[in-house]
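Structure first, sequence second, as always.
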């Protein structure tokens, strides 16, 4: 290990512990800026540092230690250029905090990537991340626009619907009337959450919809979803909760799980966080994921990375050995952009954790460090 590498290991350790003085912090910033691939990350780091500092959020020591170990390992690997042996480029986001200081630091871990011959054209600063917004379609066909700031009461028969900021909540009275349905539709560039008449909570990701009755009077509680939703279901053994996704049925008693059913994805995924669900005739255990092939209906079960699956709900993109095309589909939905990209068989594999609160330009700068060149015209993004 070179003396330079050892020096920055010590400097990063002090920085993570909140012990760097002004001169050392400036030296560390200069080191980060020395690499073009780090410049966009540095801007983000400075912004997030201020937010974290004001929140004084505490992270357990064991997590902070693991973060520090990974960061130091990254410096060693980048400095010596001997350890990485795969073609995987990894973009890692780490956070470390203590009572004295809260620090968020972004480091790009990658093998040297070919640099584009010309500077990429990016005019994406004006494209902001998604917000809380949706359209509620009532049983009579009328629609109500919902957004982050809206607060309103919507009445339909015996049912009262309360919108407060980015959430919709139902309060149903006992009724013998015929069951009627509402549909909550979240467009691209949006997200929204809803508390159903039984108290179950559903978070909807961008480009998703949920169709549900305004009261659960039957033998089960049945809803239909497209896109992606995270469910926390109120237990009721006498009235099972059922999520319908095309030809797939997720049967629930009381649990937390995620359903991803976008039409442009290769499979429909149901991931169990806690409790118990049955996907068609296959029962899942916590931490397992059922993948259904829409073409054949075949279902396979595998262990899931829970943090990666629900990262969208907690405000992040998280990738693990993902193709660029996989990442671009998520960006398309969250930033409401169209993608022009011809997928190749030798796409680089990327990994990392990135905040969904960043403007599109920051995300593209990070991805460009790994080779692709982007051009944005209006809301159409072309990979050149």
């Amino acid at each position: 290990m070179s003396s330079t590498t050892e020096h920055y290991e010590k400097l990063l350790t002090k920085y993570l512990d909140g012990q760097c003085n002004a001169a050392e912090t400036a030296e560390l910033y200069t080191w980060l800026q020395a690499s073009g691939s780090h410049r966009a990350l540095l801007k983000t780091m400075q912004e997030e540092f201020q937010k974290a500092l004001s929140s004084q959020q505490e992270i357990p020591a064991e997590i902070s230690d693991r973060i520090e170990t990974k960061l130091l390992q990254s410096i060693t690997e980048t400095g010596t250029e001997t350890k990485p042996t795969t073609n995987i480029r990894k973009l890692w986001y780490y956070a470390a905090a203590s009572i004295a200081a809260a620090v968020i630091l972004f480091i790009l871990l990658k093998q040297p990537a070919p640099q584009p011959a010309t500077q990429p054209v990016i005019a994406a600063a004006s494209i902001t991340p998604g917000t809380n917004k949706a359209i509620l379609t009532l049983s009579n066909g009328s629609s109500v626009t919902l957004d982050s700031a809206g607060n309103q009461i919507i009445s339909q028969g015996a049912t009262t619907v309360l919108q407060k900021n980015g959430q919709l909540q139902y309060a149903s009275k006992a009724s013998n009337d015929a069951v009627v349905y509402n549909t909550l539709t979240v467009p691209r560039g949006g997200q929204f959450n809803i508390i159903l008449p039984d108290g179950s909570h559903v978070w909807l990701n961008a480009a998703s919809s949920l169709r549900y009755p305004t009261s659960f009077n039957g033998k089960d509680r049945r809803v239909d979803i497209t896109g992606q939703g995270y469910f926390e279901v109120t237990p009721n053994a006498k009235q099972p909760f059922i999520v319908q996704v095309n030809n797939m049925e997720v049967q629930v008693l009381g649990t937390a799980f995620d359903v991803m059913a976008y039409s442009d994805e290769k499979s429909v995924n149901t991931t169990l966080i806690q409790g118990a669900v049955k996907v068609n005739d296959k029962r899942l255990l916590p931490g397992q994921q059922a993948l259904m092939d829409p073409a054949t209906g075949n279902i396979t079960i595998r262990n899931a990375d829970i943090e990666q699956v629900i990262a969208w709900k907690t405000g992040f993109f998280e990738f693990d050995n993902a193709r660029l095309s996989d990442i671009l589909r998520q960006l398309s939905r969250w930033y409401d952009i169209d993608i022009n990209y011809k997928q190749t068989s030798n796409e680089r594999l990327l990994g990392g954790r990135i905040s969904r609160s960043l403007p599109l330009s920051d995300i593209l700068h990070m991805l460009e460090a790994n080779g692709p060149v982007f051009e944005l015209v209006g809301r159409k993004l072309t990979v050149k």
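Margin note: The mean pLDDT is 76.
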